[in-house]
Amino acid sequence: MARVDLTKATPGWWTAKHTSNWDHVKGAFERDWEQTKADFSKSSGEKLNQNVADTVKQSVGSEPIPPLDVKTRLTDGKVAAKEAEKAHEKMAKESVKAAETASKARDDIAKEHSKRDEKVAGVRKDLANETAKASDKIASASDKAAEGIAKEHGKVDAADAKRHEAASKWRDAEQELRYGYSVRSQYPSDSKWNETLEAKLRGEWEGLNTGTSWDASRIEIHRGWDYAGKTV
């Protein structure tokens, strides 16, 4: 089922105030969200030098929210040099790995072509004695070689699809974060995240038909609820 934008699929209690509150803090929250991913993952998030104090100040408007590609504060020169060195080393390793992968793929394709050529040559050798059978063997050899090459290309396509699927984007998480953030102010009496609150939110979320199940969305909804507790 396709994902649904929560600007169109909202709970019955949603008002313009909820939209305004979310629009006011989402820039700071996005920076906090990217920084948290960068702190706990080597492959996602953005290192923005953003801490909780920065997020709170940005949320209440006491400090401006920098663009997402600009760090909250400049990195120390020595630290920046070290990070640059690490980045260079990582890029070099990735380049070597990519070259090895490409080389292996070329070798595999060359082997498949070589096998095809050998089979075709063998078939042609028998062609003088049995023309009809030779034609069938040539066709069979070519089909097998093409199948082998297609499998290699299929592996590359599958790996690329998996990489894209694993990429975590802010736009994919915002609807859950936005909902969780607004729930905190909508149900102020539920000051603790517990089974009772989860049961209430599960029914409401699944009734929105957002395209994602409660179990798949729960972590980001809880993250939005926690964030509201820091800034509201």
Structure keywords:
mainly alpha, 2 domains, 7 helices, 232 residues, 73% helix
Brief rundown of the structure:
With 232 residues, the chain is mainly alpha-helical.
If you had to describe this structure to a student in words, what would you say it looks like?
- By secondary structure, this protein is mostly helical.
- It folds into two domains: 16-75 and 169-231, no CATH class; 77-166.
- It is built from seven helices and no strands.
- It has helices at residues 16-40, 52-60, 77-127, 131-166, 170-186, 195-207, 214-231.
- The longest helix has 51 residues, at 77-127.
- The radius of gyration is 28 Å and the shape is elongated.
Arithmetic mean pLDDT: 77
Q: Uncertain spans, ≥5 residues at pLDDT below 50? A: 163-167
Quickly count the helices: 7
Overall radius of gyration: 28 Å
H/E element order:
HHHHHHH
**Percent in helix:** over 70%
Indicate how many domains the architecture comprises: 2
Per DSSP E runs of 2 or more residues, the count of β-strands stands at 0
What profile does the largest beta sheet have?
none
Distance N terminus to C terminus? 34 Å
What shape does the CA trace take? elongated
Structural class: mainly alpha
| Strand residue content | under 5%
